[in-house]
Design a protein that fits this description.
91 residues, mainly alpha, 6 helices, 0% strand
């Protein structure tokens, strides 16, 4: 019986030393991939065209100040209960 394939497999798959993990390269790669994603591009477009928010957006919304529309859009939330229910129930 020829078992040379097992000897070859042992030689190929023998003791291996794993490559050391370079965290700076890993984080740079992950950052580059995250920046090139569609979500990152959409967020960059949204923040580039966004109107500057008031200093305290939540206070502006609660108090009903003159900049409440800008504050609400800066919070990126929805305060309409019917709209929230409709969005939650949509598949």
């Amino acid at each position: 019986m020829d078992e040379s394939f097992q000897l070859r497999a042992r030689r190929l798959l023998g003791k291996r030393i794993p490559a050391p993990l370079d965290f700076s390269v890993l984080t740079a790669t992950l950052t580059a991939q995250a920046a090139s994603s569609e979500a990152a591009r959409a967020q960059a477009r949204a923040s580039a065209s966004a109107v500057p928010a008031p200093a305290d957006p939540l206070g502006e919304i609660v108090l009903g100040g003159p900049e409440r529309a800008e504050a609400a859009s800066a919070q990126r939330g929805c305060f309409n209960r019917a709209e929230v229910r409709r969005r939650r129930n949509d598949p």
